[in-house]
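Chapter summary example: a protein plus pyridoxal-5'-phosphate.
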Amino acid sequence: MDEVGPALRRAAEIVAAYRAGLADARVTPVASRAEVRAALGGLPDGPTPLDDVIGELVEAASPGLMASSGPRYFGFVVGGSLDAALVADAITSGWEQNAFNEALSPAAIAFEDVAGTWLKELLGLPETASVGFTTGAQGANTVGLAAGRWHVLHEHGWDVGRDGLHGAPRVRVVVGDERHGTIDRAVRLLGLGESAIVAVPALPDGAMDTSALAGVLEDGDGPAIVCAQAGNVNTGACDDLPRLAEVARAAGAWVHVDGAFGLWAAASPRTRHLVDGIELADSWACDGHKWLNVPYDSGYAFCAHPEVHATAMAYTAAYLTGQVAGRELGGGDFVLESSRRARGFATWAALRSLGRSGVAGLVDRCCELARRLATALSEVDGIEIANDVVLNQVLVRLGDADLTDRLEREIQDDGTCWLGATTWRGERLLRVAVSNWSTTEADVDLVAATIARLRSELV
Ligand SMILES: Cc1ncc(COP(=O)(O)O)c(C=O)c1O
């Protein structure tokens, strides 16, 4: 009997009902990790029918689900998923393609080719850049820095692919003081070691103080990578890319941009100026699962030098059909993984459904809602906005650290919305990231009212 057809239709109904309920749902889960685990029991001796497996899965998981794909989730930087992207992603699971290369799935690679071209156009990147579809910005930062490591060592007469790092010239990785932690992890994973990191002081908004960059670069010699940031995870601030690129180039350094969410500023004429000069870099990291609202997981590693990108990442073996000189690169050549999910379908569907104006509208709407929230909160007695809201990030000053931490817990327990606290320049603040396509003005107003109400109950 065909069991899977009815089960898939049931799955579609479960997902559709879940999504339909998100606008009114409690955001915070009611069950903890331990409670969900306890509901699952031990490994059974024999098989369980498909229907029962799915029934149990949904019943046990539901209380522990975070409504992070809904309109009032403002933690970290988390997008929802556009309808087209979600459905494309569900079909991707059904098709179960291995997106390693064209021999394994021409369609998967072709969709990455086309979606990659569209992404470069929207993000203002060189049309000749290579694109790797990664698991996220962590993967993309690692790929970009791997390409940079290969290149700067090659320029110093060292083949890191063949000879590794033992005895290699020391590579400096010059970063802003307020870089994202994934840069440090990438530097560790690439064997450069955290001591290779040289931090340039940050301006009050968290962007790199590029006036200090030349001095830092002159302070040492040898191969260097300069790591810029488009979109600070706390403030949304972007580095001065033209200045940074000019100084880095003069020192012969590779320029990598971590633009996990901030690179999307390029897609709207209203925010494009924040990332002017973006095309001057050598490699870029960006996420699909944040601001483009593609389901997890989805990121992009771009490189202005496809041959360097592929030399740093690709591998070949006798059994790999089509692995011959002169073939068209793509898929597994540009990422860390060999066998991999076909992420091009969902990204293509997101871009096809929104079009150029839709992507710009999504960016603009989130920025407008961030400003609306900031305005509403700044009118509440005792609350201040601690950053210049240039993008979709808002930092909220509620009082001292103790009050902020207590309020964070109250907000999360209340469940109307989900927000987290952060420490910014020594101060505990509430952090809001507006990245979801479905968030409305009413959601933002409700969040402002909830924060004000819960604060007034605590002070
Ligand atoms: C600036 C920046 N870089 C990198 C990352 C890591 O992204 P991912 O979790 O997709 O790997 C983030 C996540 O918030 C980020 O904001």
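Key point: The chain is about 40% helix and 10% strand.
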